[in-house]
């Protein structure tokens, strides 16, 4: 239970802090800090915690490879988000962006599993 709670607190704190900094110092700083791998590193550390070295290594290697597809999808979303949000309402734009991300990342995951 503690690892899950710690993951929730660390991830939530990182997102909240970066959002606050972006609002205070602008999108350039926020975008730069959003690339900081706090959530990813926390997920890796919490996944490895309490496992044998061999088991942890196998799981972490798989997580890193699988995250590459999500990272590529993130880059696409970062490029198209300003265009979509600017044209449509926030709700439709976010729904479209999430669907696009899920499709791209899911396709990558599916290709990686083959």
Automatic annotation (TrEMBL):
Transmembrane segments annotated in the record for this chain: 6-22, 29-50, 62-81, 88-111
Keywords: Membrane, Transmembrane, Transmembrane helix
A Pfam family reported for this protein in Swiss-Prot or TrEMBL: DUF3147
Alphabetical list of InterPro entries matching this protein: DUF3147 (IPR021493)
Superkingdom of source: Bacteria
Protein name stated in the entry: DUF3147 domain-containing protein
């Amino acid at each position: 239970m503690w690892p899950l709670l710690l993951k929730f607190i660390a991830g939530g704190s990182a997102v909240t802090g970066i959002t606050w900094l972006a609002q205070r110092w602008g999108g350039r700083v926020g975008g730069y800090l959003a690339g900081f791998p706090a959530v990813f590193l926390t997920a890796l550390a919490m996944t490895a915690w309490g496992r044998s070295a061999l088991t942890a290594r196998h799981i972490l290697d798989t997580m890193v490879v699988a995250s590459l597809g999500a990272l590529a999808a993130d880059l696409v979303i970062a490029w198209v988000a300003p265009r979509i949000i600017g044209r449509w309402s926030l709700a439709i734009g976010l729904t479209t962006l999430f669907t696009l991300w899920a499709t791209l990342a899911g396709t990558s995951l599916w290709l990686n599993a083959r």
